[in-house]
Design goal:
alpha/beta; abc type-2 transporter like fold; Four Helix Bundle (Hemerythrin (Met), subunit A); 19 helices; 5 strands; 71% helix; rod-shaped
Length: 489
């Protein structure tokens, strides 16, 4: 009998809890459906691929940019989107600060001379991203771009090296061409004929080697290939004293001297410079270098303050109804707006204490940078708290139990984590889903807090209008809904 009673009581509590859930469809929605909807929305809105980086190039020599750099950018696909080239660094930085471009790439002046001086030519990449993830992405994309240029330069250097590797034959051909020119200038036809034959044999031997091939010193100089030089030597009329024949010999000698000097210069360059002739240096404009902790610290404070304010306000009227004080308020000469104003100030005092404690821990405990104004920082947090309290009071006037209120607060927290830019930039969301992000108070507050702390900027007009206007609209909505709830109760 004892065991039967245990089962009966357990069954009674089971029926009671199930009945309570059935009578609270809003609770079922907030517990089950809403989290899945948020995850589904996040999954649909998240972009797997990065948007192309709008890039403007600063180059003193636009011809070098268009012939050497720009053709290699196509190898990166959609990673970079060229916004043109300019010779003014300041105008490019102006476009960066105004948000018209994402990256400024400063092409080194006379990179060929720098490389020949046994130094790496450095591309300077400038951006204004605070997000460590976005900074790493920019570094990877720009590194890939420079690697593409490096590969192109390396291919050309290797091709030159193949042509110039057999320096013994090249040096002998150079000396023979000089002897041929001297013999023709002195009118010694026998010596000139012998030197011409020797030069032809040397060039033919050089052209037949694997290193000789058919690759020239430069793509725009097809006459400098070993085979072309051999054909030019064979066509020389050494028995003639014609000035054109002497000029042909001198031109052939000049080409061989140039090739021999280039080979010596090629051998003098360090292998590291040959393999990676360009390097990239990424720098942050208008801010300070941030660690991951620094970057996420203001987001943590904003999330905690918003969650505290929403939860306190959401439980407010529910608690009053559970304690029975609503009945007292109904018979008292009290308006809904009066009650809300008092509650706003009461919860705001608690939020101020919490904000002060968290800020002290952030700045003095973790050493988070603070480049802006304390007044601007406090104003952003105050606007966030007031707007969050408005959200909470609207929720409190709609739900009918403390469980629903708590779950609504958790839904707000989940939305804020996924869509506010707290851990992933909202630029990675499609525009339709970004509308959800900008509807959240914390999105505006977090964006403004990072500007104030890390850029030294003030509160922009968008933040003031969004948070201030949103707080006012939420207060009016909460007052109307609370008045109706008091009247209905």
């Amino acid at each position: 009998m004892f065991k039967v009673n245990n089962y009966v009581r357990a069954w009674a509590f089971f029926r009671k809890e199930v009945a309570d859930l059935v009578r609270q469809p809003k609770l079922v929605v907030t517990l089950v459906i809403a989290p899945f909807l948020i995850l589904a929305l996040f999954g649909a809105g998240y972009r797997q691929t990065n948007s192309p980086l709008r890039t403007i190039f600063v180059s003193a020599d636009e011809e070098t940019f268009h012939t050497v750099i720009e053709p290699r950018l196509a190898e990166l696909g959609d990673a970079l989107e060229s916004a043109g080239v300019t010779d003014s660094r300041e105008s490019a930085l102006g476009l960066l600060r105004s948000g018209q471009v994402d990256v400024v790439v400063v092409v080194p002046d006379d990179p060929e001379a720098t490389i020949r001086n046994n130094e790496q030519a450095v591309f300077e990449v400038l951006h204004d991203q605070l997000d460590p993830y976005e900074r790493a992405t920019i570094g990877l994309i720009t590194k890939a771009a420079i690697d593409a240029v490096n590969r192109s330069i390396l291919e050309g250097l290797v091709a030159e090296g193949q042509v110039m590797s057999d320096d013994t034959l090249l040096s002998e051909a150079r000396q023979t061409s000089t002897a041929l020119r001297v013999a023709m200038e002195e009118g010694d036809q026998l010596a000139a004929r012998n030197e011409r034959n020797r030069l032809t044999d040397q060039l033919d031997a050089w052209a037949s080697t694997e290193q000789g091939g058919s690759t020239g010193l430069a793509a725009d100089d097809p006459g400098a290939t070993p085979a072309a030089l051999r054909d030019r030597a064979e066509q020389l009329d050494v028995s003639s004293q014609n000035s054109s024949d002497l000029e042909a010999v001198r031109a052939l000698e000049s080409d061989l001297i140039e090739l021999d000097d280039a080979a010596a210069e090629f051998r003098s360059i360090e292998p590291m410079v040959i393999v990676s002739p360009f390097e990239v240096a990424t720098d942050l404009v208008g801010s300070t270098e941030l660690s991951v902790t620094d970057f996420y610290a203001p987001g943590v404070i904003a999330l905690l303050l918003q969650h505290l304010a929403v939860t306190f306000a959401a439980l407010s009227l529910v608690s009053e109804r559970s304690l029975g004080t609503i009945e007292i308020f109904k018979v008292a000469p009290l308006r809904a707006t009066q009650m809300l104003v008092g509650k706003y100030f009461g919860y705001a005092v608690v939020a101020v204490v919490v904000a002060f404690a968290l800020s002290g821990l952030m700045f003095w405990g973790f050493g988070v940078p603070f480049l802006g104004s304390v007044a601007d920082y406090a104003a952003v947090l105050a606007l966030l708290v007031v707007a969050s309290l408005g959200v909470g009071f609207v929720v409190s006037s709609v739900v009918s139990s403390d469980t629903q209120a708590v779950n609504a607060s958790m839904i707000m927290l989940l939305l804020s984590i996924f869509f506010s830019g707290f851990f992933i930039s909202i630029d990675r969301l499609v525009p339709e889903v970004q509308a959800v992000s900008w509807a959240l108070p914390i999105t505006h507050a977090l964006d403004s807090l990072r500007d104030v702390l890390f850029r030294g900027s003030g509160i922009d007009l968008r933040t003031t209008l969004a948070l201030g206007g949103g707080a006012l609209a939420l207060f009016i909505a909460a007052a109307v809904l609370t008045h109706r709830r008091l009247t209905a109760d």
